Amino acid sequence: MRAVVTRVSHASVTIDGHLNGQIGRGFLVLLGIGPNDTEETAGKLAEKICNLRIFEDENGKMNLSLEQVGGSLLVVSQFTLYADTSSRRPGFTGAAKPDQAIPLYEKFMAHCRERGFTVEHGEFGADMQVDSCNDGPVTILYDTESRL
Question: Which terminal CB of the chain, N or C, has fewer other CB atoms within 10 Å?
Fold first, then answer.
């Protein structure tokens, strides 16, 4: 799995002109799923992201977790994170097919909810408009093919 995690003051996703999900302070997670990903991968990545300490404490240090600040997550599927950029026109065959990716996308969100977080989301495969205010800016990249 590949994830781009952005610390946001607010974020939302709109589909066909209708607000599908929105959060205040928290994480916007753009989540890509690869063909080698499993339920175990989804659980490990969810644990890593949910425990990420990138909110400022009283001393201005990034030391507080999502739980400590009462934050939420907005998770948006993003197959383009598996783009093959070796040419001018990216290819996306490196991403998992929907029959594998959708259950893992759902499993990732379920793991986050099990940890007590509010999880809003986009719609897998939909044309979405994502709006966010990157707080900091702070953006963290994860790739489960690298060591978590």
Answer: C
